[in-house]
C-alpha cells in the first residue's frame, strides 16, 4: 500500500444497486460489504469513503414512490445502515447519486435522512477531492450515456430511456424470477451490454428451462449442424454434377462403428436435409432483412444503440476535464460495471466496477448452440492517495465466494471447455506529480 503521509486516502466503490422489487432485494455481497465497512471503522488512516453512484436501486422499486423507498431500504437492511452509522463516526462517507438512485438528488429530505446514518449525500453529478497538489474528479458516468443522461438532474419527473428499461424489464424480472426452474431471471441486471439480453434469455431457456428430454434429443443435431451445412452444399454440388460426393467411402467408415455409426449417419442425413432447406430459405430472407435494415437507417428510425460505448465517451469526457482543470490527475467513474484503468493525456481514467454479479459471454466450441454466460463476482475497491512519487491508484479485490456451481450446468461447462472467463483487476498505477504532461507509469 502507498504511504498516506501526504494527504487523505480515498476509498471508492460504486454500483451496489441495493434494493428493488421482490427478488432484486437480495444482496449477495452484504456480508462482504459489512466487513469492509467494519474495517474502515477501525482504520488509523486519514480516510474518506466515496460511493460513486448507484448505491441503491431506487429505479427498481415500481410499487412505491418518493421517500417511502428509503423507508423500505432501512427496514430491509438495518444492519447495513447501522454499520454506515458506525463507520461514519470514524471517517467521512460521501455519497454521489447515480442514475438508478437519481431520486436522491430530487428530495432534500434524503440529505437529512442519510445524515442520520453519517452519510453525506452530495446532490450533484460530480465532485472533486484534493490529492497532494493535484485533484480527483468523481462522477458516476451516466452523463456520458445518452440513454441515461439527465437534462435536469434532480428533477423527479425526468425519466430517461434507461428508466423505462429498468421498470419494464429489470424490475419485472425480479417479480417473476421465482417462477423459473432455477430462479435465474433476476440476474438480468447483470447482463451488460443490454443488447446481449435476448442472447442471454435464449441461453437460459435452452440450458435451464427447456424440457431436458427435448434438450438432449436435439443437442446432437445442433452440435453437428455446421458439418451438415457443408454436407448440404456438397450434396447440392453433387446434384448439379459439379462434384461427386464419396458416399460409399463415408458409409463404409461409419459402418465399422456399428450402432454408433448408424446413429451418426442418421443425424447427418437429417441435419443435411434441414440445413439445405434453411439455406434455400435463408438466402432470400437475408437479402430482404438487409434491405429492410437499410430502409430503417435511411429514415433514421433507430439512431442510437441501447448501450453506451464502454470506453470512448469517458475518454472524451476525461480529456475535457483534464483540459479545463489541468490540476486533475484522475477521472474516476462507474456506471458501466467494468473495472478498468486507462491512460488519457498522461492522466488516469479509472472505472470502479460493480459489486453485482457479472455475466461473461462465451460461445460454444462447436455447433449452433446458444452461448454460455458464466457468472462471477469481482468486488473491488479503488484506493487513491498521494505518495512521494505521485498520485497512486490501486485496486483491492474483496474476496467473494464464486456463484454456486449449479448456476452453470455440466453441459454448459463441456461446451465451453477451455473458454472459462479469467478476470483480473488492473495493476497499481501512478501519475507523477508536476505538469499536466506528467509521465504515466503503469503496473508498478
Automatic annotation (TrEMBL):
Keyword Metal-binding recorded: yes
Ranges of residues in domain Calcineurin-like phosphoesterase: 11-204, 313-360
A matching Pfam family: Metallophos
Source organism: Haloarchaeobius amylolyticus
InterPro entries documented for this protein: Calcineurin-like_PHP, Calcineurin-like_PHP_lpxH, LpxH-like, Metallo-depent_PP-like
Region (Disordered): 403-444
Keywords: Cell inner membrane, Cell membrane, Manganese, Membrane, Metal-binding, Transmembrane, Transmembrane helix
Compositionally biased residues, Basic and acidic residues: 407-427
Protein name listed in UniProt: Metallophosphoesterase
GO MF entries: metal ion binding
Ranges annotated as spanning the membrane: 213-243, 263-289
Amino acid at each position: 500500500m502507498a504511504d498516506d503521509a501526504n494527504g487523505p486516502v480515498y476509498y471508492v466503490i460504486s454500483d451496489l444497486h441495493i434494493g428493488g422489487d421482490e427478488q432484486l432485494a437480495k444482496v449477495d455481497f452484504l456480508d462482504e460489504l459489512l466487513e469492509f465497512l467494519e474495517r474502515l471503522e477501525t482504520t488509523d488512516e486519514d480516510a474518506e469513503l466515496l460511493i460513486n453512484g448507484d448505491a441503491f436501486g431506487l429505479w427498481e422499486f415500481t410499487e412505491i414512490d418518493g421517500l417511502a423507498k428509503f423507508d423500505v431500504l432501512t427496514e430491509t437492511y438495518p444492519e447495513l445502515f447501522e454499520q454506515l452509522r458506525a463507520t461514519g463516526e470514524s471517517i467521512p462517507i460521501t455519497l454521489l447519486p447515480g442514475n438508478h438512485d437519481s431520486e436522491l438528488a430530487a428530495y432534500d429530505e434524503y440529505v437529512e435522512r442519510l445524515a442520520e446514518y453519517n452519510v453525506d449525500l452530495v446532490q450533484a453529478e460530480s465532485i472533486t477531492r484534493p490529492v497532494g497538489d493535484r485533484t480527483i474528479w468523481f462522477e458516476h458516468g451516466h452523463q456520458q450515456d445518452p440513454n441515461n443522461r439527465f437534462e435536469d438532474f434532480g428533477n423527479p419527473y425526468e425519466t430517461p430511456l434507461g428508466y423505462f428499461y429498468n421498470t419494464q424489464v429489470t424490475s419485472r424480472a425480479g417479480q417473476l424470477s421465482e417462477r423459473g426452474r432455477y430462479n435465474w431471471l433476476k440476474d438480468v441486471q447483470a447482463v451488460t451490454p443490454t443488447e446481449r439480453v435476448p442472447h442471454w434469455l435464449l441461453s437460459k431457456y435452452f440450458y435451464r428451462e427447456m424440457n431436458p428430454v427435448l434438450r438432449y434429443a436435439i443437442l446432437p443435431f445442433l452440435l453437428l449442424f455446421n458439418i451438415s451445412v457443408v454436407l448440404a452444399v456438397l450434396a447440392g454440388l453433387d446434384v448439379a454434377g459439379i462434384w461427386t460426393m464419396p458416399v460409399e467411402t463415408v458409409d463404409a467408415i461409419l459402418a465399422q462403428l456399428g450402432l454408433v455409426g448408424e446413429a451418426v449417419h442418421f443425424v447427418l442425413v437429417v441435419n443435411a436435409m434441414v440445413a439445405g432447406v434453411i439455406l434455400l430459405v435463408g438466402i432470400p430472407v437475408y437479402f430482404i432483412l438487409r434491405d429492410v435494415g437499410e430502409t430503417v437507417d435511411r429514415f433514421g428510425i433507430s439512431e442510437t444503440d441501447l448501450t453506451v460505448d464502454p470506453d470512448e465517451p469517458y475518454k472524451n469526457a476525461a480529456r475535457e476535464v483534464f483540459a479545463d482543470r489541468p490540476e486533475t490527475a484522475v477521472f474516476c467513474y462507474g456506471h458501466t460495471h467494468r473495472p478498468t484503468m486507462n491512460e488519457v493525456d498522461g492522466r488516469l481514467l479509472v472505472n470502479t466496477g460493480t459489486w453485482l454479479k457479472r455475466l461473461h459471454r462465451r460461445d460454444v466450441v462447436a455447433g449452433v448452440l446458444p452461448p454460455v454466460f458464466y457468472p462471477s463476482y469481482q468486488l473491488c475497491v479503488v484506493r487513491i492517495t498521494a505518495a512521494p512519487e505521485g498520485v497512486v491508484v490501486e485496486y483491492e479485490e474483496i474476496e467473494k465466494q464464486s456463484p454456486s456451481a449449479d448456476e452453470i450446468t455440466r453441459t454448459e461447462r463441456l461446451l465451453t471447455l477451455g473458454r472459462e472467463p479469467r478476470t483480473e483487476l488492473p495493476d497499481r498505477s501512478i501519475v507523477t506529480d508536476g505538469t499536466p504532461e506528467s509521465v504515466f507509469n503503469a503496473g508498478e
